[in-house]
């Protein structure tokens, strides 16, 4: 079974978006370099960020997101982001009409069902859980192995929290990775068991 990683870009004060769901400058680092991060050619990062992020992205088999993110992105027009094979959407609402049940998007009622589906799809590849409410629920359930953050040099003051509505203490190990890119600090922590 692969590793489960909670991941997202985050402000220095712990927010993944402002109160209006806008990421503001959190993703500026994805446009600040000259090395293409994917085949689109739109995302260009520093060589340092590429050397850190691209190998990680290549290991992801499944990404788990909440219905809110799915709706905000219009389901990425039916194509999983970043070359990921599958997306599992945590939702208590019916899946949108017209979504292929055999396609790359899967819908689950709750984080436990989402994790079970993701494990079946990912094999030994990484299960990525988007930061925010769903990521916080997966962390609170004790199902996250690692936390990865791309910390942008901005303070929001308020907004959508990286760990969602987690209200209990969760200890992380000392950072295994601390890499400075252009307009970003890449951090990786193991969750203490």
UniProtKB/TrEMBL annotation:
It comes from the Bacteria. It holds the Pfam family RibD_C. Residues 112-171 form the Bacterial bifunctional deaminase-reductase C-terminal domain. One of its GO terms (biological process) is riboflavin biosynthetic process. InterPro entries: DHFR-like_dom_sf (IPR024072), RibDG_C (IPR002734). GO terms for molecular function: 5-amino-6-(5-phosphoribosylamino)uracil reductase activity. This is Bacterial bifunctional deaminase-reductase C-terminal domain-containing protein. It comes from Occultella aeris.
